[in-house]
Amino acid sequence: MKPDASLSDSQIRLLDATEQLVYADGIRATGMDSIVKTSGVARKSIYRHYANKDELVAAALRRRDERWMQWFIDETSSPADPMDRLLSMFPALQRWFESPGFHGCAFINAAGEIGDAGHPIRVVSRLHKQRLYDYVRELAGGCMLADPDDVARQLLVLIDGAIAVALVMGDPSCAASAGRAARTLLASAASRTC
Question: Where does the record place a coiled coil (predicted)?
């Protein structure tokens, strides 16, 4: 079943508009009037599905998490060797950084706007990073590394660091730099198992 199968057309338009506006402009800068206008969904209908804007944004981010993770897994699933799959993450990131409308990590951006660690938007953001870590850890586990947990954490730092540099500096090639650092990290971690 597709993730959107249980959603009405108006809910899909609403979540699409919310995700697009929040990703481009931020949570605080995105008002309900903009969401209503962009989605074409009446305010009354919105509040039938979501109690408030925060719930709507959290729902849009959950949906983005599903799509982004599927994209990332698809982009990195071609190489048969787990080590090559780990290294393929960085060219995939560079393609994303070079794509029109790149505004960094929607989850880091959203979490940065919310102070309360227990807030639903922060929870969704944390769950996204956990899913990304779990995927990287799964790949690292197939590489005969001394400490795949630590390697996965270090790779997550390289991934998020590259995303931040690409956004702030406008330099998509930082993904290649992160990829070179990942290659060094993996070679070092693999040599410690011998």
Answer: none
Residue 180 lies in a domain: yes
| CATH (domain of 133) | 1.10.357.10
- Beta-carbon contacts of 27 under 8 Å, excluding residues fewer than 6 positions away, are 53, 57, 110, 113, 114, 121
How does pLDDT run across 3-61, given as a tens digit for each residue? 566 888 999 999 999 999 999 999 999 999 999 999 999 999 999 999 999 999 999 99
In total, the chain counts a number of residues equal to 194
98 within some domain: yes
